[in-house]
Design goal:
This protein is of the alpha+beta class and 500 residues long. It contains 15 helices and 14 strands.
C-alpha cells in the first residue's frame, strides 16, 4: 500500500495516514486552520464540507451531526418520490452521526494542501452504521473474511470521456472551468459538446501531448492524493482515457476509486475539461467500463485463489490452477451476479452499454483470459501465481465502487461458505457472449428489470445484504426509473414531431 501523502510544506509535520491517531493528530495539523470532510452517498458521490480546525478537533473522537438528507435525495438533490426510512419528512430529515476515519487522512494538493478525511455514517439512536452507508457496507462484507482469517485485495480500471467546456463570459471571470458545461447543454444539442480529442486512437502516445499539462497533472495529483495510478493512457474513442489504479486492500481500493473521480473532476475543471463517467455517453461509440479485480489473501498476503500445482482432473480446463476456494468464489459470483445488477449497473444509461456486439458482457459468463465474458479469470498458465484473481467486467464507470466491491466480496464469500460449484462451462475462445454457444443466462436488459430482480423476495441480494439495504436501494432505483418514465427525449421529438 502506498502511503505517500500530498506534497507538504517543510514546516508541516510528516505523519502518514497509517500512523495517525487521536494522540498525535494535533501535531499533524499543527499548522492548519481548516479541514475538509466528506462521505459517500448511495450514488457514490462525495458529499462534504469545510470546517475550522477547532470544530474538527472537537468532533474527531465522537463524530458530528451530518444531515441525513444525503440519503433522502438523488444526485440532483431531489427528494425521493417515495420517502425511505433513513431520511424523510416524518423524522425531520434528522442528523446522522458522521465518524471520521483517521486512516483516510490525506491532503488536497490543488487546494493548498488542506487536510482531508473521509467519514462513515451511523444512526444516532442505535450507534450502528446506517444500512445505506457505502463504506460501511463494504466493511461489513470484508468483516466476514477477517473473522475467518482472510483479507481481500482489489484493483479498479476506469474509462471516461472528456469534453472541452465551452467558454461563457456570463459565468466565467478569467479562468476557463468546467462550470459552463451544464448551462451550455441547457440550450445546445448534447452532440455539439466538443470532445477533448478526435477519432479512435487507443494507447496513443501523441494524443496526450495535445493536453499535456492536464494529462500529467492527473497522474501526479493522484500520487500526491494517495489514489495512485499504475497505468494511464488513451482508450478507443474521441477524448476517451483509461486509468488503472494501484492494486491494494479492498476497502482502501474503494476509497481510492472514489477519490480518483474527485481528482479527475477537480483538475479537469481547472483546465476547462469536463470528464464524463456515464456508462454510454455517445450512441454508436464504446461505453465507459469500470472493471474491478478481486482476490482473497491470507494474513501473510498469500494468494488463496492459486492452487499451488496443476489439478490433473479439473471440472474445466480453465480452472486447472485455481484453488477450491477460488472455484467456490467464482461460483458465488456466477450464482448472484444477475441479482445484484442494479449495483453493477445503477442507472438507466448503464444498460445502453451492456448490449451485444459492443465489447461489453451481456450474460452470466466467465473464462480464462476471456475479455468478452462477464468474469475474466486471470491465472496460470497465462499469469503469475500471485496475480491469480477475477476481473468483473460488467461494471460500468458510473457505479459506486464501494457498493460494487461489497457485492463482489459478498457474493464470492457466499460461494465459499456454501461450497458452491462452478457448473457453467467457460466461454470458448473466439466466442462472444450471447451467441449460440454461450450457456450463460442473459443479464437484465434494463434498470427496471434488474431492480425487480434485486428486490424480489428471496433474492441473493437480500441474502447477502439484508432487507434494510435492499429496500432502501430499491427505492432509490425506483425513483430513477420514475424520472426516466416521465422524461421526453430528443429522440422522441425528432422521430414523432411531424409524422404521427
Amino acid at each position: 500500500m502506498n502511503n505517500i501523502l500530498a506534497t507538504k510544506s517543510t514546516d508541516q509535520n510528516d505523519i502518514e495516514a497509517e500512523n495517525l491517531t487521536l494522540d498525535n493528530i494535533a501535531t499533524a495539523l499543527a499548522n492548519d486552520t481548516k479541514v475538509k470532510l466528506a462521505g459517500l452517498d448511495i450514488d457514490g458521490i462525495l458529499r462534504g464540507k469545510l470546517v475550522s480546525k477547532k470544530k474538527f478537533m472537537s468532533v474527531v473522537k465522537d463524530g458530528f451531526g451530518f444531515c441525513s438528507v444525503v440519503f433522502g435525495w438523488d444526485m440532483h438533490d431531489m427528494t425521493y418520490f417515495r420517502e425511505l426510512k433513513i431520511s424523510n419528512a416524518e423524522n425531520g430529515y434528522k442528523d446522522l452521526v458522521a465518524m471520521v476515519n483517521l486512516k483516510s487522512y490525506r491532503r488536497i494538493p490543488w487546494e493548498n494542501n488542506v487536510p482531508f478525511f473521509l467519514v462513515q455514517f451511523y444512526d444516532p439512536d442505535t450507534n450502528e452504521p446506517i444500512c445505506a452507508c457505502p463504506r460501511s457496507l463494504l466493511r461489513n462484507a470484508v468483516g466476514k473474511l477477517d473473522k475467518a482469517g482472510y483479507g481481500a485485495m482489489a484493483g479498479a480500471e476506469y474509462e471516461f470521456y472528456t469534453f472541452r467546456a465551452p467558454r461563457d463570459p456570463s459565468i466565467q471571470s478569467q479562468l476557463q472551468t468546467s462550470a459552463t458545461t451544464m448551462p451550455y447543454l441547457q440550450s445546445n444539442d448534447v452532440h455539439s459538446l466538443p470532445h477533448l480529442t478526435q477519432g479512435m486512437f487507443g494507447y496513443s502516445l501523441t494524443d496526450p501531448v495535445h493536453n499535456q499539462d492536464w494529462f500529467y497533472k492527473i497522474f501526479e495529483t493522484c500520487e500526491q492524493f494517495r489514489c495512485d495510478v499504475e497505468g494511464w493512457h488513451t482508450e478507443s474513442g474521441p477524448g476517451v482515457f483509461e486509468a488503472a489504479l494501484q492494486f491494494g486492500e479492498v476497502t482502501e481500493m474503494a476509497d481510492r476509486a472514489s477519490l480518483f473521480k474527485y481528482v479527475v473532476k477537480a483538475i479537469g475543471s481547472k483546465h476547462g475539461i469536463t470528464p464524463c463517467f456515464m456508462a454510454k455517453p455517445r450512441q454508436g461509440l464504446p461505453g465507459n467500463s469500470g472493471h474491478m479485480h478481486c482476490s482473497i489473501v491470507d494474513k501473510s498476503g498469500g494468494n488463496m485463489f492459486y492452487r499451488g500445482e496443476k489439478d490433473p482432473n479439473p471440472p474445466f480446463k480453465d480452472l486447472e490452477y485455481v484453488s477450491d476456494m477460488g472455484r467456490q468464489f467464482l461460483a458465488g459470483l456466477l450464482d448472484g451476479l444477475a441479482d445484484v445488477m442494479p449495483i453493477i449497473a445503477p442507472t438507466v444509461n448503464s444498460y445502453k452499454r451492456l448490449v451485444e456486439n459492443f465489447w461489453a458482457p451481456v450474460t452470466v459468463s466467465w473464462g480464462l483470459e476471456h475479455r468478452a465474458a462477464s468474469i475474466r479469470l486471470i491465472a496460470p498458465p497465462t499469469a503469475s501465481a500471485k496475480a491469480t484473481r477475477f476481473e468483473i467486467r460488467t461494471c460500468g464507470a458510473d457505479a459506486n465502487p464501494s457498493l460494487v466491491l461489497a457485492a463482489i466480496v459478498a457474493l464470492g464469500w457466499r460461494g465459499i461458505e456454501k461450497k458452491l460449484e462452478v457448473k457453467l462451462p467457460p466461454l470458448g475462445k473466439g466466442e462472444d457472449v450471447g451467441g449460440s454457444s454461450d450457456k450463460g443466462e442473459r443479464l437484465p436488459k434494463t434498470l427496471k428489470e434488474s431492480t425487480a430482480r434485486f428486490a424480489a423476495k428471496g433474492s441473493v441480494a437480500r441474502e447477502v445484504f439484508g432487507d434494510d439495504f435492499v429496500d432502501h436501494y430499491t427505492g432509490t432505483r425506483e425513483h430513477e426509473l420514475r424520472l426516466w418514465d416521465e422524461a421526453v427525449t430528443d429522440w422522441e421529438i425528432k422521430r414523432y414531431i411531424e409524422t404521427v
